[in-house]
Amino acid sequence: MSARIAERIARKKPVGNVRNRAAFLALRGEVKQAIDDGWPVKTIWETLHDEEKVAFSYQAFRGYVNRLILSPPANGEATPASVVADQPRQAAPRLAPQSAKQPSEWKPEKPTATGFTFNRTPKKEDLL
């Protein structure tokens, strides 16, 4: 069905966004397989662009990958939602669900003493 819809959209020459999304959806299985095989998203886009299977920009392609392949499923499990362009995607561990603490149980973390602390009055030995 997806292939027929993509073919129909391609024949009608609709507005760019609809045509681009239909083209991506038709290739979604191939793109997902390539990502699972460890290929960088940029390399996948370059290959599809050279083969003239996609005519849209890399940024649009990356957005489709993030929204339609890597976005969290409806069942609430968290998965990574961003793609690093120049590095192969590694299988990331699933994120653990947030603890079920009530807001009254939350305690702010104490600030650490590391880092820069501004002192308004300068020390004479620090001045040139």
From TrEMBL:
Region named Disordered: 76-128
Domain of life: Bacteria
InterPro entries reported in the protein's UniProt record: DUF5338 (IPR035225)
Name of the molecule in the record: IncP-type oriT binding protein TraK
The organism of origin for this protein: Candidatus Accumulibacter phosphatis
